[in-house]
Predict the structure.
Amino acid sequence: MSSSHFVFRFLGAIWRGANGLRKVLHLFLMLFLFLMFLGVLSGETPHLIPQRAALYVQPVGSLVEQVAGNPYDRAVAELTDNATPQTLVSDVVEALDYAAADDRIEVVHLELSALGGAGLSKLQRVAKAMARFRESGKRIIASADFYSQQGYYLAAHADEVYMHPEGIVYLQGYGAYRNYFKDAIDLLRIDWNVFKVGTHKSFVEPYTRMDMSPEDRDSRTRLIEQFWSMYEDDVVAARGLPEGAVNDYSQNLVDYVASANGDISQAALDRGLVDDLLGRAELREVFQGYVGVDEDDESMYPAVSFTQYLGQMRLLGGDRIKSENVAVIVAAGDILDGSQPPGVIGGDSTAMLLRRALTDESVKALVLRVDSPGGSVFASEVISQEIEALQEAGKPVVASMGSVAASGGYWISVVADRVIASPATVTGSIGIFGMVPTFQRTLEAVGVATDGVGTTPWSGELRSDREMGQHTKQLFQMVIEDGYNDFISGVAENRELDKNYVDSIGQGQVWTGNDAFENGLVDQLGDIDDAVVAAAELAGLAEGEYGRKLIEKKLTSTEQMILDLLTVARIAGIDPAAFVSAPTQIEVFAYRVQELLSSVSRFNDPKGVYSHCFCELN
């Protein structure tokens, strides 16, 4: 037998063995899927909506325009109960709108204990949907163990408001606070080179001061006073309270609690903020009075969660997409260069979504829903150019501002054919900055020096271990000033305003939507529904003849298959979370540190030029 013949036989045996192993593994996989399928069949049937039921609406975490994170990673995290709590404001609104016309839903139970942060404009949007539901003749009953300021805003728009006897209504008002690091930077001998244009451009202040500048203090004071006034007016009107009652409760909380013998929940009841203090069993009895007793559990009332209800109604209601559509693209989060996951606006990834709208023949107009404090100037310009390409193709674009559309968020909005803001939108902040820290003095303190040679004055200038030269500082400042000039020139051109006037309302100043409308920075006040109507009108689409098409990043077929398998496994009783280890304390600490540093470290503009607003109100 020749040696070559032996080799071929040997390789053939390996192949046959590998092929046999493949078949065995395939058999095991099919058996596994079959067993899971049997488990699903033998398990509980899908929950059907009772003929008389309460819609259980429990927003968890922050109310957001777009859930953050890669869709696949987030879906896996949700299956393993490891996702950051977030609730889409559009999901809550859509569920309430479906329920208003559904005879099976007789009452809404709005449970607000788990609601975290939410911008006032998002709360107003939900409150508007609540009003539409109540117009159907049905009631909304709100409850919570603890009412945050955001939660109480929604509760005030309900028909009845209940709280646990040990609960609290905590209305802290609005504030703008941040940490300042100049002394720490000096202590560490870091040279934090800052370049900016705008007397009120306060994003860089923590690195150059130890307190809020007078200009920023005036701007923030004007902003938070307007927000608090809007909040109070809305709650007082919805709840039927005496004028000034909300502010009075907050300002004199200690006195009211003292008069209630230290019982803070009783103080809220005495001031008319809640209708009654009820424990869990008493609250269940309230809902049993509306929809009866649950057939499977006599201690409960028949109910369906809004997420489950929404999923079923979307399947039954069919697609809202038609042959002619207004597309909606959500641009939420900081603006960064490159491709970014949802919850962050990537120059390239958002541009790709805009190009999908451009090439989709069924899309006749676009609404860009902006909820962003800004970021990279380069990425903002990339996005703006794609918006202009849509306009050149005859597809009008309407910018719809959410809670925040400032700095870069305003940059990508102002190029639209029409700009619509909520009265509670934070916008403006027209200004530019750049920051480049160097650490040569820090290194010198521990005995490290840097030296070398270069062919031009720019050689080694952007090294973090060398002092920045005056010519480099001069160049950076010129680039920043040119960026600011481009910004105000673009606003002046698109808004048909005098450039000097734009400069006077620019300089980094922040405005509410009301202010922005008066200053000419936006065209009208309204919400995303108003923006869709405006886009349809600009495109010449007749009312009722067009659909609404959400354009967003989708899962790949492979990712969807994996998620489907995990979902089936979970239904069959196999918990995917069992295969995921909990993070260690060190990992949790590292994540928190990363979050703290991300406000600066994540920025990646190619020129280091940013238009970002410190817009957080808390």
Notes: Residues 203 and 614 are 5 Å apart (CA to CA). The chain is about 45% helix and 15% strand. The mean pLDDT is 88.
